[in-house]
């Protein structure tokens, strides 16, 4: 299923309902260890639902989710997080009443910060250092997104699930986030990225899985998809690949 | 001139409300009774805070509306009655330290009994109705009735006197103002509890998790924290605080009945709404505001005392529809 490398996460035939509505109709794909896999697809294709199902926030009705050889579909969310899976939701999940430092502290596994990891994060997002003791609710949209990703980076994670990190951000902010994602990629962090911005996906991802109506309709390498405009057009439509 | 002053004013105005009420009452009441009423209002407010703080966290963390909270107030008050009976030697002695020791033992017993009952209550009743607000209302109102009836079975239907310790019965005079000693002690106890709660919430990791959980329950779970386990602790702490509040309130009124908590319920819900559901800081300011308003208006226009709090709530909701210090909810 993966284009290359050992599989870290495997999603097999996953069906998920939200209320009475079935959103995922047998999703199958895999994410390889140390690579960036992007989930592409139109709005409503089921990308966010897939991430939330992996994280245990919505339960799969059917199917398997296997992380590093362990079945996680039946585990609760905190247990899944403790396995080393970090989740950056679309709404960023920032605690607005807490300071930036407190937001970061919540994501650490010990009482304080590991200096080397903290330095790495602040090097990627220097703006956070300036706002360290400010309420996170007072940050700009871009700074909040930085904080959300910084929080996922403050410990060595085995898998990052990131949902549309560039949504609504200015081009300069997008560049900064792409740089941070590339840094994570250079450090061989495994990332499953949901992204609407094709250019960002192209810059960051190694592998791609394209979704439509709750199913995976294509898997392969990002480079192959980026090189094949006909395939892009067929899978994603003009609006996506030509935008941004 | 800084252009963002209206924003700053908007941010700080809720903090200025209580001092404004205190200052505005001075010319209307006159300095002598004003000091007496202010201390009485602060004391009442701090006792209401003890009861309301747990309830606001319980709601903020798990969206649980616990109408049986009043029962834990009553349990705390009755356990204090039982504990203080054999300690009459300590409470009747003209020794401040013995009196305070008896008070401390009674407070501790009230907290332990109400907290333990809270643990059982959460396991047996609340756990069944997570995410079902209508069922929560029905089952907690039913539980309130059952616990109050059990209290009558155990302690009898008659109200029981809960006299204040000997050294705390008198008053101290500041100028022409008379201030009851018990109120000053209750105020100090309440402030210590509020300070302990503040330190727990702001200086400990568990406190941080509680504050974050109130804001976004889902995200805190995605960070690896078992919110249900945290909630059980918060529920127990909330009911323990209600028990302590019940003990203090019972001694404040010098009498305890099975409906002691019911008399506080309306005020407690007004406080929660004024402060912003889930906000402990808002709850503190709301409680002080309600305590002061009740006492000032009770002096100026006695028939308006309860109505004044409802009017206060309505005015604040017109100004801040989600309360003075709302907590963002992403549930």
Topology:
The complex is a heterodimer of chains A (244) and B (331).
Chain A: E1 7-18, E2 21-32, E3 36-41, H1 47-55, E4 60-67, E5 70-71, H2 77-82, E6 85-88, H3 100-106, H4 115-124, H5 126-130, H6 141-153, E7 159-163, H7 171-186, E8 191-194, H8 198-204, E9 207-212, E10 215-221, H9 222-227, H10 229-236, H11 238-241
Parallel strand pairs in A: 3-8, 3-9, 6-7, 7-8
Antiparallel strand pairs in A: 1-2, 1-4, 4-5, 9-10
Chain B: H1 5-29, H2 31-62, H3 69-84, H4 88-92, H5 96-124, H6 133-155, E1 160-161, E2 171-174, E3 177-180, H7 181-203, H8 205-215, H9 217-222, H10 227-253, E4 255-256, H11 262-275, H12 280-300, H13 305-319
Antiparallel strand pairs in B: 1-4, 2-3
Helix pairs in contact in B: 1-2, 1-12, 2-7, 2-8, 2-10, 2-11, 2-12, 3-5, 3-6, 3-10, 5-10, 7-8, 8-10, 11-12, 11-13, 12-13
